[in-house]
Design goal:
heterodimer, A: 248 residues, alpha/beta, 6-stranded mixed beta sheet, 10 strands, 35% helix, B: globular, disordered C terminus
Chain lengths: 248, 335
Amino acid sequence: MLEVKGLSKDFGGLHVIRDLSLSVTAGERRVILGPNGAGKTTLFHLLAGTLKPSKGEIFLDGQPIKAFDAVKRARLGIARSYQKNNLFETLTIRENLMLAAAAALGKSTHMVKDSSRHPDIRQRIDEIAEQVSLADQLDQTVGTASYGNRRQLEVGLALATRPKLLLMDEPTSGVGPTMIDRFHRLLEQLPRDITVLIIEHDMDLAFGVADRITVLNFGEKVFEGTPEDTRGNATVRDIYLGTGGYHA
Amino acid sequence: MFYQTKFRSITLIAALIFLASYASFGSYFAREIVVEIIILAILAISLDLCAGFGGMVSLCHGAIMGVAAYAFAIMSAKLGWPLFPSALIGLLAAVVVSGLVGWVTARTNGIFFIMATLAFGQMAYTFFFKSRWLGGDDGMGGISRFDLSAIGLEMNNSLTFTYLGLGVLLLAYGLTAMVMRSGFGRTLSGIHVNEDRMKALGVNTAAHRAKAMAFSGFIAGLAGLIAAQHTLYISPELLIWTTSGEALIVVILGGLGTLVGPVIGAILLVLMKHEISDYTDYWHAFIGLVLIFTVLAGGRGVFGQIEYWLNSLRSRHHDPDNHQTAGKPQGGDHA
């Protein structure tokens, strides 16, 4: 479904991603692990098209997409939720979802009908609100919503476009255990026609949802395997627990 | 985001009734004032669409209005085309010029957008100012009036003309309101609030902004046509940047991002101008004071502020415990 070959990204002399190859099958839940600075978020930038790779190729369903910008890739079905909230702050949660739903349903260029009353858009808003547990907060302005609600909306905006490939950058960063459980359930309930790449620091969540795990360190893939293999792998343990590296 | 609330509909209808009464009970001079208000209000609605919803504070809207007026005058007075197709060409010219400005400036924001539009506007102004064929700074006359006698309207009657102008104002408002609450308009608000996220949702934001400018040009073009029909004479004065500045003052005075606010703002500005200039030559200073007060009072404008108060009252009334959402304007603040 997603095929990455020999991907590299340099910022001047700094090699943030080095010769990275990935192969993700349709419907897979792939967790990306790695200490801070390993290049995880940069990888998402490269996949979503907000950064151009220095080298390498990216294929989505066999189609080379390296030349496409972020807008075109979004239209091909790549959606992304951000590590730091990137929302429409002055609008309500409903309006946020409305924008995403209208874009996904091809209504963002329609000039006649009131989009807030469009049945398809309303239905999509209700579905997503249910999915990310925001049904009771829809009329709250994002700027005044709780941090947890904003994290949920962050994922909701990505889901509202009904993506083929969902890139989730630390969806649970900064939230408590209840919310993490809720995300866990959300991920389990996601239909299998969505392929998910997720950067996650919560190990229980990561090991719980992953089909396979890819571990990055200093921009390189240092390990890839099932959650069981990952748990027992010495390299991964070193990166995460010892030998002077970061603790995630 | 824009919502056509009941309060907005009532205010708009009240404003139109006020203008119609002012014209019918007043003298010829009163009708001149009302037409002046109509032109300014339509131009301000067109600017509110860009500035209030799209965050594109344009200083070339006067020029776009002028382009429509000149294109109309060139086709009808210079080339002898019938008035109706000439008017369509006038509108088309405004759409094309405005869309082009929007396309070129689509990746600029804030002060750079303002400067770019100022430059485009002044270029257009200079072009007409220097053009001998179009009368240069003397302007251009010889425009004839629409003949609507077939449907029983005598356009040379100042009252009929004013009523028709009010009809165009209603049309301009209705079209803009329709577009602003559509998927297109709401997406424009979204681009204003967070352009990057809008791109990540698959919206070509640059093209969207250019289209918004083109549509705004259509509305400004309507104002240009009325201006040309009103005096049957046009001059480069229409295009000068202070015309755009005046429209911006009207938008801010009435309430940015409300669409009704610009109509109220135009009424206030023109009436203040005429009333106060009876007593003093320093009427500009008075309007300046009012504007400063409006901005310091929260920047919502006269209409926007009243709407804000009403919404605060209403949400307190509905939900006495919820102070967090109290006072959130339900019909979109600046977005």
